[in-house]
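Example 3.2
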Amino acid sequence: MRFSRIVVSLGAVLSGSTLVDAFWRMPCRSRSGLARIDPLVSNGTISEHAHAIHGSDGFSTSASYESLLAGSCTSCEVAQDKSAYWTPAMYFLNSETNEYKLVEQVGGMLAYYLLYPNSGNTSLSAFPAGFEMIAGDTNQRNFTYPVPDIQKSLWNVAPYNTQAFLRQAALGFNCLNYAITPEGSLYRHFLPDKAYLDAHCTDGLRLELMFPSCWNGVDRTSTDKKSHVAYPSQVMTGDCPSDFPERLPSLFYETIWDTYAFNGINGTFMMGNGDPSGFGYHGDFMMGWEEDFLQQAVDTCTNLSGQIEDCALFTIQDSSVYGNCNVTLPSAIAKENVVGAVSTMPGNPVIAYGPGYASGAAAGGNSATATAGGVAGTTQSAMTLSYSAGISLASSESYVPGGIFAVSTGASFALSTAATSTPTSSPSVAATSPTTAAAAFVAASIVESAGPSYFSTAYQTLDPNTVEEILWLEEVITVTEASTATVTVPARKRHLHGHRRGGNF
């Protein structure tokens, strides 16, 4: 396989009434496991369904904060991050063969740490040692709110000011087509049907998940792994409920799945928990940083670029290290076929189409039942939502996870030729010209008009043997605060090195 990186240098001016909120983007480009392991739901036992797992090799069916820290490695690029990040794997049911096959994951996972304090505050707390939480509801199979979302300015009344709504609005299924302006993050809250994916999502589907960032300040976990945390008023931004006053980093997951590899084949995509609707998409997080180190990072790693290389605290690992970090599987599932083709999904979970509530295993609720497989319901949701180009958040916020920024219309762009190619198992496969590919991406993603323009960073699969990563680098960012002061941030250059795409994907 050949991996190439294209670097596009950007000179732009960002302006707003307040300083741009800081963040860093944690790349976990290699899985540490693909297995039925979920210590938050099925502690000490085999999980009901398969998960794509990233992070510490100390992860196990009975993982704890201490065991994550004691792990010998992490599949994420920052050596100090021994956290565990996991979501259901995605599968495709071929209607002709009646067999399931794993959808390939592209580029691993990105875990964003967005540093959004509550109004009037200038700081926030790190995740405490032993902290854990789940976002989403594995058994949800319906969405009873208007589609698309109403304006966020109207979310201050029922039912939009409820945790039930915010939890569902925290799911995103971003249709990828690198030839056009990308959709905004968290735009679509359900899994598009096969016909829509084939017709529009030529570069796959990006699954997005926003975690609660408001904490009660006392409990580091709870029976259902949810009750100790809550969403702020606008899912990602806004303010916390009064009984959850302490603001934590806003954690946001992105994983890309190559759904277009099944273009033209009759069948159904579904998540590994038996969910063909997407309404039950969810994710789990176990904190695995040294608490004092993470607090220092939250306080000081505030470069506006979001690049981990711009934080001097972080030790950046090479792909030869993070790409060879794997959890040890229990003997009961060490040889389980989680890739396919297989007649049932791993764990044989009930396939529940909805709209009724499903009965899968949940923390503090139903127990995993590995032999309870079957089909509940026969009709997939007919809900649709057409493509819409991504837009910025409110004027006081300039960043949207997924790489969409608002930039001034006079921005200038220069293409760097510092692309790298790393041949692996298929050295004879020639990569697409970096200059040609990047130029096409720029033309497709930069919209110059009377209003703001947008750009995006992304991975794209050029062919079965080539993955291309396109990075945007800010040369100068000028931020105006309260129209009285101007802050200029000097250029920060990302250290470049090739990353292999190998067996973990």
